[in-house]
């Protein structure tokens, strides 16, 4: 990727602006590392896990009618993992200490992901050259209008299993 040095510079500037960041990486939506500034974690593993979480986040946003994916925040006992959309085919993942100002994390993460997305989109070759428009038949347009969706029928939970189900919010 031609933009790797510029993306790495942006990651380093981001870590300077937010001292509580412990890592930053840009990855493709398929889980390939594009640039990284991390210590103490395996960037390839984080990128792969980010791709998996991204898939779930996209489906959740779609299923609930929230629109296109923008960001994902995970809070653990020792800190945060924040993932932001970066252009057409990449994401920015930030690792931060628990004491980070989450508002500042979002502000800087959104700005950086926008810049990184521009860099990556400019450097990426067009996957498909523009095609000349041709007339379509009615069957062509209806067959491609929307993907088919299937849902599995759910059986209601028995009263006993619902009574035994417990959740906890202790921290």
UniProtKB/TrEMBL annotation:
InterPro entries (UniProt xref)? Roadblock/LAMTOR2_dom (IPR004942)
Q: Where is the composition biased (Low complexity)?
A: 135-171
Which residue stretches belong to region Disordered?
121-171
State a single Pfam family of this protein.
Answer: Robl_LC7
User: Which intervals hold domain Roadblock/LAMTOR2?
Assistant: 8-96
Check the record and name the SMART domains matching this protein.
Robl_LC7
Task: Please give the name of this protein.
Answer: Roadblock/LAMTOR2 domain-containing protein
Protein's organism: Streptomyces glomeratus
* Organismal lineage: Bacteria, Bacillati, Actinomycetota, Actinomycetes, Kitasatosporales
């Amino acid at each position: 990727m031609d933009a790797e040095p510029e993306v790495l510079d942006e990651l380093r500037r981001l870590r300077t602006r937010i001292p509580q960041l412990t890592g930053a990486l840009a990855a493709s939506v398929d889980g390939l590392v594009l640039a990284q500034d991390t210590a103490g974690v395996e960037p390839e593993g984080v990128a792969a896990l980010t791709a998996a979480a991204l898939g779930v986040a996209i489906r959740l946003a779609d299923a609930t009618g929230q629109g296109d994916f923008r960001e994902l925040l995970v809070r653990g006992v020792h800190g945060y993992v924040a993932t932001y959309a970066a252009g057409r085919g990449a994401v920015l993942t930030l690792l931060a200490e628990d004491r980070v100002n989450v508002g500042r994390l979002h502000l800087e993460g959104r700005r950086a992901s926008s810049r990184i997305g521009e860099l990556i989109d400019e450097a990426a070759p067009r996957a498909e050259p523009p095609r000349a428009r041709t007339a379509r038949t009615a069957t062509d347009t209806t067959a491609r209008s929307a993907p088919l969706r299937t849902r599995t029928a759910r059986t209601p939970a028995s009263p006993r299993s619902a009574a035994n189900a417990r959740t906890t919010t202790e921290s």
